[in-house]
Amino acid sequence: MARTLYGKLWDTHVVAEADGKALLYIDRHLLHEVSTPQSFEALREDGLTVRRPETQLAVADHSVPTHDRDKPIDDRQAAAQVALLERNCAAFGIEYLPLAGNDQGIVHVIGPELGFTLPGITLVCGDSHTSTHGAFGALAFGIGASECGTVMATQTLWQARARTMRVTFTGRLAPGVSAKDMALAFIGEVGASGAVGHAVEYAGEAVAALSMEGRMTLCNMTIEAGARTGLVAPDETTFAYLRDRPRAPRGEQWDAAVAFWRTLASDADAAFDREIVIAADGIAPHVTFGTSPDQVVPLGTVLPADARFDRALHYMDLRPGDAMEGVPIDHAFIGSCTNGRLEDLRAAAAVIRGRHVADGVRALVVPGSMRVKAAAEAEGLDRLFVAAGFEWREPGCSLCVAMNDDRLPPGARCASTSNRNFEGRQGAGARTHLMSPAMVAAAALAGRIVDVRQVAR
Ligand SMILES: CC(C)[C@H](C(=O)O)[C@@H](O)C(=O)O
Ligand code: SF4
């Protein structure tokens, strides 16, 4: 029978079935400091060990400071969280990527760039944005703290099979429009719970044309439509990205792996439970206006009059009929597991080159990882951002979630490349507008939200 990519990934990992659920084999587990303390505690209480430590990889990202990394961490809670992760990993034999090392970064940035994330595998992490790794054709999904413990002890998880949804982006993106705009357009169309219970596979010409960075942005935000996971079938772009990555297979193993990875695409006649088609060539840059990622509009339109948005608009200090263009901003954030990769920094830099951040705007660039930072510095992007008035920081989640000391004051309004615009996400009372890196760069220069297509060179 014809199968979808999701079906193939599922079938190759089922160990047992009962009560309508399947016991799935979990190939890889990523860990960070926020979601794992209880998982390790549970192992200790039950006297369990980690079954296959070599399939697990840990890094601290959420609460780490993005400045003065040569000094001890100031914040006591953050310092304790990071130290605990390090101790737990040492005690259970799990590899930990040190804060001072060259491989540290946001968990969803380092997995792919190290070649830890591979097509055809199941990959989990105690973090909702684990869907990012689905860009490689891996079955990747976020799990809870107790499930992290289960995976460490048993290398398996009971899961209910998801329904399938294919989202086909026809045509090509226009200049100035990116994967972030595709993600926001999709979420705007289906709503924040529109894909609940579904595994979403992205397909179509515009997806095939995306770089791995773009595909990761798309899969990363899939979770904001309520989906369990996002997927893109692996292709030449995927293989070219993974070749020679530090932990990717080599030599004959590489050839065998690629031959297997080529079989993972959905069969031509595979049926999906739901099909959505979006014309990519008609997508304009998108900006969120509310406090949920689906409260989003394309530029060139005005905010809808709808009682459902009353609370959000009140929080955001906006009104129905307002256009997003011209809304003044005082902060700009370029970073996160959605848009903190080299390509994202390049897209922002291309807009900024030779210009300066507007008076009264505080702008931050937080590379997604040490490797992204090093690569950006090798191209001189750090100097370009600093000359333009941006702060150039050390890698971590930073202002995406404000769990470290990067936090906005109440009433601040931020143009942000991150993925969640919830109330207080970037600081109590702060307002977040999600958009692409190029759009954030343009907003930082203008001091207000502008259409990057009108400022880009
Ligand atoms: C802290 C962590 C568990 C959380 C998540 O699950 O996604 C965070 O990464 C987020 O983006 O809100
Ligand atoms: S960058 Fe943001 S979304 Fe990504 S893992 Fe960190 S807090 Fe979560």
Automatic annotation (TrEMBL):
Keyword Iron-sulfur found: yes
Names of required cofactors: [4Fe-4S] cluster
Function: Catalyzes the isomerization between 2-isopropylmalate and 3-isopropylmalate, via the formation of 2-isopropylmaleate.
UniProt source species: Alterirhizorhabdus solaris
Domain Aconitase/3-isopropylmalate dehydratase large subunit alpha/beta/alpha: 8-447
Enzyme class: lyase
Keywords: 4Fe-4S, Amino-acid biosynthesis, Branched-chain amino acid biosynthesis, Iron, Iron-sulfur, Leucine biosynthesis, Lyase, Metal-binding
Lineage: Bacteria, Pseudomonadati, Pseudomonadota, Alphaproteobacteria, Sphingomonadales
Name this protein carries in UniProt: 3-isopropylmalate dehydratase large subunit
EC number: 4.2.1.33
Cross-referenced PROSITE patterns: ACONITASE_1, ACONITASE_2
Cofactor note: Binds 1 [4Fe-4S] cluster per subunit.
Pathway(s) served: Amino-acid biosynthesis; L-leucine biosynthesis; L-leucine from 3-methyl-2-oxobutanoate: step 2/4
GO biological process: L-leucine biosynthetic process
Reactions catalysed: (2R,3S)-3-isopropylmalate = (2S)-2-isopropylmalate
Gene3D superfamilies in UniProt: Aconitase, domain 3
Positions bound to [4Fe-4S] cluster: 337, 397, 400
Entry annotated with the keyword Iron-sulfur: yes
